[in-house]
Amino acid sequence: MYLIKRSLLVSIWFVLLTLPLLAVKVDTTNETLIWRWENMLYVAVSAFVLYMLWLLAMRWRSRQRRSEELAQPRVHNLYSTITDNKVIVGAFNLILLAILVLLPLLSSGYQINIWTTALIYVILGLGLNIVVGFAGQLVLGYAAFYAVGAYTFGLLHQNFGVGFWVALPCGAAVAGFFGILVSLPVIRLRGDYLAIVTLGFGEITRLVLENWIEVTNGPGGISNIPRPALFNLELSDTGTAVWVYYIVLLFMLIAFISLLRLKNSRVGRSWIAVSEDETASEVMGINTTWAKLTAFALSAVWAGIAGVLFATKTRFINPDSFTFMDSALFLCIVVLGGMGSVYGMLLGAFAIALLPEYLRAFSEYRMLLFGAAMVLMMIFRPQGLIPPKARQYRVSKLLGKEAQS
Amino acid sequence: MEKALEVSGLSISFGGLKAVSNMSLTVNKGEIVALIGPNGAGKTTFFNCVTGLYRPNSGTVRLNHPERGEIDLKGLAPHVITSLGLARTFQNIRLFSKMTVLENVMMGMHSRTKAGIFTALTGSRYARAEEQRIVDESYELLEFLNLQKLYKANAKSLPYGDQRRLEIARALAAAPLVLLLDEPAAGMNPHETLELKELVRQIRDRFKLSVLLIEHDMSMVMSLSDRVYVMEYGSPIADGKPADVSRDPAVIKAYLGEEYNA
User: Fold this and answer.
1) How buried is residue B242: exposed, middle or buried, by Cβ count under 10 Å (0-12/13-18/19+)?
2) Which residue is closest to B47 within chain A, CA to CA?
3) Is domain A101-380 annotated with CATH 2.20.28?
4) Contacts of A354 (CB under 8 A, 6+ apart)
5) ipTM value > 0.95
6) In this predicted structure, what is the pLDDT of residue A405?
7) First vs last Cα of chain A: how many Å apart?
8) Which of A128, A346, B69, B200 is the most exposed place for a label (fewest CB within 10 A)?
9) Which residues on A lie below 8 Å from B116 (Cβ)?
10) pTM of the model
11) A contact test, residue of B98, B143, B150, B152 with most A CBs within 10 A
């Protein structure tokens, strides 16, 4: 009963709120008012239904919370049984890899294009996860490092005719340099202040790219960026697209494996410690300045690599590809996938990059759906789609005992 | 007796407030020294100065290092001080809540290990061996503190007393010369306090270290410590054997007020 009453109130409120916007229309040619009451009906019904669903979902969540608090922490649930099983995880990895490797052979140029973007987004998600997910430093200007990588390639080619394979390490190095440069003032800041400074850096980079016309050609961007060479072979358009796809896939795999390794290493643990409690980590012997610096630098290096890959894929770059919206999008990948999670980045990036492409029919409502999805995520699964998993350690002593028993 | 840690003339002020002024304190090798005083006397601030979290305005903090002789710790970064041989626990427990019990202890070994980004990325044999070594050593420390059954559990899911002991384990993992405990018995029941007292003695004997502890539980201070320092309003007011200190009129005044006459 309460549900219906509340939903009814909300729907009436929404009708009143949207009345002047959706019901009243001025017909300028006849100078009359047109009343579109049917719109009000749509608003009332949809507000009623949506609010009811909302209330039900909130109820379900609070019930779930309560049962979680009451119950002993479950050590063995389905998720952890699956993810603890090495065979299943291995098989999953193999299938995923096989799909990604075989994909370009089975699909059109358009599909390859989308999937290349998705893989670049995975690299960006992984890179950003180092600094946001592991080290816990909120960075809102990640697109700037991405831009630095892309423009390094673009400018090197334009001015010196440098090819892809030489530009790649250059882009990574320059972006890494900028990462260190930004991290120097930023290291002393925490939380909100850090976010503001990195946001500012992102905007500065974009504005420089837009206004330093003599060097960057401003909003006109840089075109005719070369595709990577393959032993002097002449490739067709689709052929080069496939070749670029495989290069991106290769770097995605390298990023993926290196992140898995870092996460379970002394360095990765120190990042996580810094993200949790800086004072305690300092006292535990962690050089927090160094930890943050390396996180920033490494994160920027991956953005630089992604930038070079992006430049070679689109063959044209301009400042429009590196706006604050893009930074926010990359952050969404990390939040959606799960902060500090490596596998989560796959899912997060695929969701962010692929869903808008495959849901072109709803393209008008894209941002609306996107926002709604984010709000729902934060309420019902704040830890992300695939939250990071605690690592299993093998204690030498116990291995012997388990073997005996 | 050989000195392990010698603090002299340590002062720090925040704005106009002198939180600690001219505090001197010595911890000899193998000694258990207690630092007591009413709330707000500056004991934890003193700890923060010694461990490098705060930068004292004046004074010296000398640590007697077996290989490097006497080192002045004043002005060094906290992580350097830890690596030189000073480890501490916190009054309000500061475990890493996203990590397991074992990982928390492994964090304590950070200053004693070396693997960096490149060894981690390449998965070198050295890094893997080091990793395995600290896993095993951490587990042994947990066994010593009788927490080994919980090594997979999340640190924050532990009962309060266990969290306190885990903090001690984490501090011990840094292999300190001097262990600083900030109110280790806070919030413990009498039985747990008794166990803790025994534990501190065991730690001292097994790891051959010195202990400096802040404590409010007088029965524990009196029976455990070799010497006691008393602070009030940031300044030392008395020091000596527990029995002597407890009869000191200045101490009685600090704790019980002016009118109290025993």
Assistant:
1) middle
2) A283
3) no
4) A114, A115, A118
5) no
6) 45
7) 59
8) B69
9) 266-267
10) 0.85
11) B98
